[in-house]
Amino acid sequence: MPVNYLYPEYEIVRNYDRCIVCRACERQCANEAHEYLEDKNKMVCDDAKCVNCHRCVSLCPTRALKIVKSDHTFKENGNWTKKIINEVYKQAGSGGVLLSSMGNPEHYPVYFDKILLNASQVTNPPIDPLREPMETKVFLGAKPAKIERDENGKLKRNTPPHLTLSMPIMFSAMSYGSISYNAHESLARAAKELGILYNTGEGGLHEDFAQYGENTIVQVASGRFGVHTTYLNTGAAVEIKMGQGAKPGIGGHLPGTKIVGDVSKTRMIPEGSDSISPAPHHDIYSIEDLRQLVYSLKEATAYTKPVIVKIAAVHNISAIASGIARSGADIISIDGFRGGTGAAPTRIRDNVGIPIELALASVDKRLRDEGIRDNVSIVVGGSIRSSADIVKAVALGADCVYIGTSALLAIGCHLCRSCQTGKCNWGIATQREDLVKRLNPNIGYKRLVNLMTAWQHEIKEMMGGMGINSIESLRGNRLMLRGVGLNEKELEILGINHAGE
Amino acid sequence: MREGMFRNPSGCAISGIFSKSGERFTGERIIDSITVMHDRSNGLGGGFAAYGIYPEYKDYYAFHIFYDNKSVKDTTEKFLEEHFDIINLSKIPTRKMKSITDEPLIWRYFVTPLHTKLASSQLDEREFVAKCVFKVNTRIDGAYIFSSGKNMGVFKAVGFPEDVGRFYRLEDYAGYCFTAHGRYPTNTPGWWGGAHPFALLDYSVVHNGEISSYDANRRSIEMYGYKCTLQTDTEVITYIIDYLHRKIGLTLKEICSVIAAPFWSTIERKPEEERAELEYLRNTFSSQLITGPFSILVGFEGGLMALNDRLKLRSMVVGEKDSTVYIASEEAAIRVIQQDLDKVWAPKGGEGVIVTLDGGNI
Amino acid sequence: MKRIYVNEKWCLGCHLCEYYCAFASTNQSDMARALCGVKINPKIKIEENDKISFAVSCRHCDEPLCVKGCITGALSRKDGVITIDRDRCIGCYTCILSCPYGAISPSDDGAVQKCELCIKTNGGKPQCVAGCPNGAIVFEERGE
Predict the structure, then answer these.
(1) Which of A360, A467, B269, C57 could staple A120 via S-S, CB 3.0–4.6 A?
(2) pLDDT tens-digit profile of A354-390?
(3) CATH C-level class of C1-57+118-144
(4) Residue A82 belongs to domain spanning
(5) Contact A28 C16 (CB under 8 A)
(6) For chain C, what are the domain ranges?
(7) Average of per-residue pLDDT across B140-155
(8) Is the Cβ of C12 closer than 8 Å to some Cβ of chain A?
(9) Does residue A22 sit at the C interface (CB-CB below 8 Å)?
(10) Does a structural domain hold residue A498?
(11) β-pair partners for B11
(12) φ, ψ (nearest 5 deg) of residue B165
């Protein structure tokens, strides 16, 4: 047996005074970290198998379990950290690319945490959302270039196709395949109840969910999986996925083991075949090609649906966005470098892209400088963690946000970042039948509705404090923001003043 | 410190008188009205807009300009001569007053665009004039065109409004409409250009309030070629109204539904046709929605519009006597000049009151 | 009449309902203290094989064979709930034999035991329902 260089990162700590040997932990762990010793009537565990997903901890009826970080250590080294050393061992053992899931966990600045909001005092009254109307309704899409009147002087309704949302939040693209049927059902039902939209991702649309079409964004990505005319016309909007914040510049790869049953049918590819989305769209090598795809999709949907172009936040983002705004797209969606994923090469996830706050600020400014901000709406994602992040994003200039990770957290995800194993104990990032059923959509959708309702309340509270009673008066209202601990350049890019100014 | 170097929210008093029959009256009355609301200003700004006061030059743009010094005046006049035919120029007559100090040079020009310049600019006449005003105000340091409409004029200064009115000898002017503003800024500017009304072409705005949507409004309006150099609410409101009315072609009523839009809950209760129109306006011009407290009086050629914010967070009362309409922050400011009113009411939040000369069009 | 219903679609076979049931009848406040080292004998039981699992407990039948067959009158149906009078039960197990669902079982002290919807222990709030992590056991009114 070869030498094992890796020591478990986490330890499962069991309090035997509280363990009643119900074996729920054992039954619930798809990684088989827990074991029942019949002869001793005792539970034992193997730390090496634990991914720290908390399924056993959450279900243990007596709170007999906890997971702690192992204190096993290498000789302290500020440069060669434990993580880096372990990754070298792994690759020396496997010869492969390191894979990770969910968003970039490294210690880069989180600009949202360095921005503070304003509130009214004396010269202008705060507004109490419990007593006065407080509006969060949002329209996404291009604005009419000019008004037109009919022969009686009445304004013609010449608004291009657009989306109407009850609040500036949508569930971001997560494909059926990368997440489960029940996860999709939870998202779709929550979107419908809330009056917002969810996004199919590039895995196609399961026929059962066609009924939620008005609350669905259907995605067209480089693999074109599951794309057909009915699919395009079932959704309320079509999104062209050019890139993803977690892995800018590369495509996707859903392993054949997940292409089973309905997933294969929905993607329109044979069971067991790997589902590989190329890095580029092979019909888009330049901006003029994008324009052609935008209009192809508009043709296919008879110009009744807005087209979204989703891009990862990369260095030259504002120029790219400006190009997209002139290419017929109605909505630009920008995914920051902390955006989640079901699987990405670790090096890409952790080292490519830029923070969404800076990307958003610079895109909004550029589009205004060029006078084309009304051509498109801006949707941002890539680690929107709370209602405060949303308020800050809107004040920086976003029309709406996409949330992915927070939505998954609401339905049980514990950010163990092991989606790529396909053994999600919470029934989210898996296609294993026994695991998928752990996510009951009746519970899942309700938790999503709860979370969004709570955030909407908080958004209203913060808006009211600023004396703003409609979300459009917050959009791009950067005077409502102040930076703390940011340097001149950062403040300049964000277009905000420092606290105290 | 000057306006434009910092954001300067203000509380205020406003008053306006409009004669629908077009009968002209002197500035005496508006001074009497604004005097009553002395406590609503703090001596850091006062001003007036008067319509119908230059009938003899009614076809010419009347520029009122502050100059810091003689050399700026020369530079500016050179610019004006290059772009306009100057029909008449003079110092604006003033009266020395103890309470009004630091007065700049104050000049008035009646002008009309030079044909050749106008033609080569490919702009319509009003856009050409507005562009020239922006150019002087942003590029010539020390010169400031604070009034640029036809047959109307703005008179403003640092001081209490009643003193400002006497300083400018408003009793010598007669017009069909006067508006007045007394300012209570929270900072201490010493610059006359920062006083109100704020005006562009024949639009003049007096405003009481501090809008919370300021930066959203500013950043959107700047996209359409305006420059908010003063960082005041009044400036941005004026530009929004100019943009929606002159450039986009919305009616004043439609403009009220944009800047003080009805709540969605109200819109949903409207009949289908009206609901669709209100939704269209709110969606299309969402960046021009103004939130936070304001009461404004918008003067324009042949008319006056009064509007409160959608929650009515600032007081504003309207009174009518025969064909004259009075609008003020406080009823007392109306009663002092017209004890006997046919009708007096406080318009609801977002409910625009639009009055025009009899037989005139909006 | 509210009854317990199970939905095998959502049953994970985690067996937690059994433990919450057993705990409910101990009248203690801490499950660890109540059940540590104890072999439980719950009134709800998971039936399972490879792919399917579901919980089985008394259905409180409208025409209960157990009540009909009880030779001492220990079992009775009142307000739709079938309860047992432990003092009267002589442990003849006729009920166990007659229940078509296998929902009655011997208790540890001679009398039989069955689900009584927690009316004696938890104010009529069935603890198996409260403890089910996936909504597979529900307590609700359904049209018959």
Answers:
(1) A467
(2) 999 999 999 999 999 999 999 999 999 999 999 999 9
(3) alpha beta
(4) 10-96
(5) no
(6) 1-57+118-144, 61-114
(7) 95
(8) yes
(9) yes
(10) no
(11) B184
(12) -60, -45
